[in-house]
Design goal:
By secondary structure, this protein is of the alpha/beta class. Helices cover 19% and strands 35% of the residues. The protein has a seven-stranded mixed β-sheet, sandwiched between helices. The longest helix is centred in the middle third of the chain and has 11 residues.
Length: 155
Amino acid sequence: VCFGARVLCIGPRNVDELEALDRAGWRVDGVDLFPTHSRIRRGDIGALPYPMWSYDLVYCAHCLEHARDVVQAVREIARVLVPGGLVWLAVPRGGEPNPHDRHRFDTIDDLTAPFRVAEVRVEVLIGEELEREVRALLRVRVRSSEQIRGGVVRC
């Protein structure tokens, strides 16, 4: 992602995460259900408070597993990305779903499955299945504005 790229950080634990992304030379916004700083906007991953095609990269570390509706969450991620935009996802590996961690991910396929259900095509650029974490860099494939219907990306 080039210098000056627009980046959305979903669920930053604090402003330190935003500042780390700033140091890469990116223009960073943060959104969280429970913002801890004025730079972090209140919002839900299932209804992101940003217009379509606002970001070049979405950074989502240890948030997707908390989504009430993981398919709607990935639709929203795809909606705010420019066509061909990137998403960095990291989630804990394993564990049983509970009221806090609602979704279990063990493999890259598990991580990309919600995109398939949402009919959002992705290309795995980097995928790692570590002992305690699954993470991937994905390119979201959106070919034209005709694939956008009712605020949902259709690929």
